[in-house]
Design brief:
- Helices cover 33% and strands 26% of the residues.
- The protein is an alpha/beta fold.
- It has a domain of 178 residues: P-loop containing nucleotide triphosphate hydrolases (Rossmann fold, 3-Layer(aba) Sandwich), CATH 3.40.50.300.
- Helix 3 packs parallel to helix 6 and helix 4 packs across helix 6.
- The structure holds adenosine-5'-triphosphate (ATP) and magnesium ion.
- Adenosine-5'-triphosphate binds next to helix 1.
Length: 276
Amino acid sequence: MAMTEASVSAQPEAAKTGSQLEIKNLNAYYGPKLAVRDVTMTIHPNEITALIGPSGCGKSTLLRCLNRMHEAILGARAEGTVLLDGEDIYAQDIDATLVRRRVGMVFQLPTPLRTRSVYENIAIGLRLGGIKNKRTLDEIVERSLRQAALWDEVKDKLQQSGLALSGGQQQRLCIARAIAIEPDVLLMDEPCSALDPVATFRIEELMIELKKQFTIVIVTHNMQQAARVSDRTGVFMVERHDEKSVGELVEYAPTGQIFTTPQDHRTEEYITGRVG
Ligand SMILES: Nc1ncnc2c1ncn2[C@@H]1O[C@H](COP(=O)(O)OP(=O)(O)OP(=O)(O)O)[C@@H](O)[C@H]1O
Ligand SMILES: [Mg+2]
């Protein structure tokens, strides 16, 4: 789907696959402060890419640069290139709203809409996308809840408040809401940090299932989680530049390599618990 059009279909696309993101020389600022410096990395389609590193190293900032949410923060801006299947999301004629439809996001705390039912939590975004037909909405709501491995638990509670669900169910509802509009990439910022181990395990299983259709980028503080679910891992650190602290990508490699034979001493120190 091109970023100049928006469409959501009732039928799952037969062979829908995730997109590739090529990040080139990306710098992210808050006002005059450089927060993330010169990141170049390629996020591969239908893989789970984990971003790890100590607090303040710029993981969330980088993630928000991948769907133009960063610039929604007052005074914040990004410089550099992010190609979504070859198309620069920062090009002048590209509408940030359409970028955010193609690159969806799930946050740390489950954020169901407080005054809305389970059903409406998903349907609201679809209506905004132009779908008005009740049967089509019903179909997509059900499909999204099934994809998010939540249908069986909520099919009799569709009209209840999203807040009536457990924390883990609420997070799966947020995932259902994000995938309902058929993004190509799913960004997840510490999606399990508020969840218990059982709910965490369900989300991890779900991510592995979802990568068949979507490209997933996950920020996590949990190194076991990165090791369990991700195909590739990017390690970020806070480094000193011109007497200022700034987040940098220090190593990016297949996850197995990062955890067994890291090439950078900072990665090794971090994964063995000596920093961060
Ligand atoms: N809204 C903001 N305004 C100003 N500075 C910010 C803002 N958000 C983050 N920063 C700064 O940008 C840098 C990177 O922050 P970021 O939140 O991206 O780190 P992080 O790696 O996600 O950390 P954590 O693991 O604690 O979530 C930090 O120095 C932080 O203080
Ligand atoms: Mg963060």
